[in-house]
From TrEMBL:
PROSITE patterns: PROKAR_LIPOPROTEIN. The chain crosses the membrane at residues 21-50, 62-79, 124-144, 150-174, 195-218, 230-251. This is ABC transporter permease. Keywords: Membrane, Transmembrane, Transmembrane helix. PANTHER family: INTEGRAL MEMBRANE TRANSPORT PROTEIN, SLR0610 PROTEIN-RELATED. The lineage of its organism: Bacteria, Bacillati, Bacillota, Bacilli, Bacillales. InterPro entries: ABC-2_transporter-like (IPR010390).
Amino acid sequence: MNALKLYALLIKASVRSRMQYKLNFLLSSFFACLMYALEFSVIALILAKFGALEGWSLPEVAYLYGVIILAHTIYRIFASDVHRLENYFVNGELDQLLIRPLPVLLALMSQNFSMQAGQFVQSFAVLVFAISSLLGSETVGWIIVPETVFAVLCGAVILFSIGLATATVGFWTMRINELQNLTEDASRNAALYPLDVFPGWLKTFLLTVIPVGFVNYVPALYTVRGVGGPWLLAATGAFALLFLAASLLFWRYGVTKYQSTGS
């Protein structure tokens, strides 16, 4: 509990320092929102041209988009520097975290608390559009709202676990940016679309090796399309917890293998 209180204080200090430059915060939030809006516009234009993607309509694809971008935003808000761990290896800054009076991972997560307001607002707006468009269909009722909250939170845990496992590889390789481009960025971009549009081997890859499919596709099968049953949401939650536990164990093992740049 003391470590968590210290973590909260460090986050508060990080937020306070960032808010010293309010104009920069507003501008960066606006341009981030605009960038993600353009990204979704490309998907909407594709669907306007072809009508549907393997039977998935625009509101259904918007749901997939909103869930994974919102989950990704929550992950990056609370653990943005997990994605920047290579800088800590190369510059020797991880040594400073090792001597702090709290776990290394919490110290890392508190370094640069990222207030991704633009991404949050845009992804939330897309999700509201998707749910409001889907409500009233045969398979969608108001229960989709708590189900979506659950899916987003589980998705944030899964994306954090993917990022943490990838970052841990850096304890052996030091350089991990290219690997992160694959496991975090490329896989997230692929999951913006229904996995049904991909070849069987790639769909399996995105459900097992880099399991981004569990962030939005698997929950959406039930919440949006009525496929399967509530067990799909339960399976998503169980998978998120198991994957998080495995990633934390891998991280703890990786920390024991760290060699300082000065050693």
